[in-house]
Amino acid sequence: MKFKGKVFKYGDNVNTDVIFPGKYTYTVTDRKEMAKHALEDLDPDFIKEVKEGDIILAGKNFGCGSSREQAVICLKEAGVSVIIAKSFARIYFRNCINEGLPALVCSDIFDKVEKGEEIEVDLKEGKIITKNGIFSFPAFPERVQEILLSGGLIPYVQKHFKK
Amino acid sequence: MGFSFVQKILAKYAGKEKVEVGEIVTVEPDFILSHDNSSAIAKTFKKIGIERVKYPERIVIVLDHCTPAADSKYATNHKEVREFVQEQGIKNFYDINRGVCHQVFIEEGFAAPGRLILGSDSHTTSYGALGCFSAGIGRTEAASIWATGELWLMVPETLRIRLEGKLPKNTSAKDVILFLIGKLGADGALYKSVEFCGKIIDDMDLEDRIVLCNMSAEMGAKNGYCLPDQKALDYLKGRVKGEYELIFPDKDDGAEELSFDLSDLKPQIACPHSVDNVKEVSEVKGTKIHQVVIGTCTNGRFKDLKIAAEVLKGKKVSKNVRLLIFPASMEVFKKALKEGIIDILVEAGGIVMNPNCGPCLGAHEGALAPGEVCLSTSNRNFKGRMGCNESFIYLSSPYVAAISAIKGEIDYEI
Ligand code: SF4
Hints:
The complex is a heterodimer. Chain A has helices at 16-19, 31-35, 46-49, 70-78, 90-99, 142-150, 153-161; strands at residues 2-9, 55-58, 82-85, 103-105, 118-122, 127-130, 133-136. Chain A is an alpha/beta fold. In chain A, α4 packs across α5. The two termini of chain A are 29 Å apart. Chain B is α/β, with parallel strands linked by helices. Chain B is built from 15 helices and 18 strands. In chain B, the strands form five sheets. Chain B has a five-stranded parallel beta sheet with strand order 4-3-2-5-6, with helices on both faces. A five-stranded parallel beta sheet of chain B has the order 16-15-14-17-18. Chain B has a four-stranded parallel beta sheet with strand order 10-9-8-11. In chain B, a hairpin with a 7-residue loop joins β12 (268-270) and β13 (278-280). In chain B, α6 runs parallel beside α8 and α12 (302-312) runs parallel beside α15. The complex binds iron/sulfur cluster (SF4). Iron/sulfur cluster (SF4) binds next to α4 and α11 of chain B.
């Protein structure tokens, strides 16, 4: 799996309330509709500028706060292909995997890439290719890889449990 | 090297002799909690294409996030949950008259030592107060557990936080956990299993231990726990459903350890807009406030209401402040009613609401206006959390909240 896209860059502790405001959690239920509110309290321009395949690069503890999956879905539906962060909040990381959105942990890249720059991610090789060098990230455990390859937890469960 | 608490529980549930930190295991939880989000979970469940939930008796559903429904969208949501519960024969269903899910879950005896509990809510960590492993997961994962009974988990590292000394008068578990979050940061315990121990924990009653475990999520923890003791066992008497097993870590479990003496702890407050933006209350004394919220799964238990009532007895809430009180459950509400606590709160000018999450997540019952400041006993103060991203939320203990409600500004001395 390879992805190429331009980078949107954010800092540390980006919480789920600014990724997808809590006031919409029970009122906005359509996935495409969710995308329209992605990051609206942090970066209102994001949704105007984002293109299919784009990549989010963030600091520490990305996605902290509530367990709401809309905070993953809205980014995925907006076209985001990969999120790279110094670290992820635990549930957010799980939600990404379970939605089939790769969440990569890589600290070194943060200072080396600017907003708007185009970068490439090779999931299988565990590499991120940028004009300032190649960065690697630890491979996912087998079970997690299977879930990502299936396109998320639901397709994975359908494949393995449905009789 | 020996094994940690979490290694022992996860090994047991994975059917293995031992598990290593970082290993991915597949486990079947004893219980899986969800709330108003159950209708979204049910939709995902239906998408899977499996007809019946695997273990209906392991599913616990409590309606609490916006109850009674604020509008027809919320009402439809509740209706869908009730229909699903009916259709699937889910007996552990608690409708809108019971209270906040985590409190109801504990009162109903689902939390018990040694158990493995998962919930589609980040504060599922609360149950660790009773010596179990409990962690929050996402909705898709909950749907998948409904269908298959199982889920993958990564075995976390353990961080042992030893709290020694004796808490000064008028400080409480809330000040302790705010202090720790301020020290460690919002990611200070990321992915970790956090054990709270030491003399302060031994002295604490269960209600206070719940506060610590509840907010361990705010420093990124996977789960928070206190080892079970007589106090925990006493609480379980007459409540606990089913068997349980006391689990303790080995002495040499290799956990990272932090130690604090809190004998001089000052009242703490989390300032806008992050839970780790913690200061001593004295530093923000005099900040004007418009609303005070006492309640939620963090600080809406009987003890919290009682502390507030002791402060408010014979006094009046400032004219410039709306004091909203949300007992965490109907059980708490009834006890507070019986013991005259509600009377005092209402006489002082407080508004006692029905047990539910209230404005904690901004859905209803006390949303804020632009520019307004709220002091709350809840666990999160992110921008927009109470329904308006131009308002400001501070978090404190019920004691500080009650004093501030009288003064109309943040204060910690009567
Ligand atoms: S009271 Fe607040 S933090 Fe607790 S479960 Fe309800 S919304 Fe979540």
